[in-house]
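call fold(seq) -> tokens
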Amino acid sequence: MDLDDLVRDTLPVNQPYDGLLAEAYDVWLPPDGNYGDVDDFRCAIEGGNGPALELGCGNGRLLLGFVGGGLDVEGVDASADMLGICAAHAADAGIDVTLHQADWTTLDLEKQYATVYNPAGSFALIDTDDAARVALVAWQRHLRPGGQLLISMDVPSGPDLDANYEWRIRRCGTRPRDGMTFLVHEAFRYDTTAQVQHVLNRHEVWDAGGALVSTFLRRMQIRWWTRPQMEALLRDCDFVDVQTEGSGDGFVTVGRAP
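ret:
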């Protein structure tokens, strides 16, 4: 059977994190959450000995804790709604934060940083090697000589590789201020040759009484690169001292501007 016979929708792919999706993300991954990547990026920023830029800062999941802790870090994101949520969190916490709305894959801020970092695997939203190189070149322009770039990446493994669009719950969370619950189901399959995960998300919003308020579908394509492939991409774009840190299938590739 042709796997494509199962799912032939024409939904747009990798739409921005706007509207209800931005609200849901903030419920699932709030800035005061306990995240495993906090310490690694904090150490990198501190070791960079200069200002830092977070690529795809979203609602401030990492950014606000760093700025609140006295680090000189700015954030950039393509979504105005996500940046609005981030700014609101910053105001509530009395934090002065610098945010830029821009396509972070074709960045042009006319400023350089000691550290530029891309957490949470959002690099996987870039779909081709050529597009990845365009982004890497843009990011290198924003680094001081010797400045460091860090990119987080996850490589799928295990039984999920055999998935064939079976539905399961991805995330569910309730917003304390109004009792609204944001639930997302996911169904996916992997194309291991192309190194792409094809994802269909069914989002639902439920009120405090458990009544369905809204639902919508979202299509995602998640591209992954292996450790050697990520290192090769950075070297192709003239990064030096390229290395990969981490264990298992999640890692961070680090390179420096010449």
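Residues 80-93 form the longest helix (14 residues).
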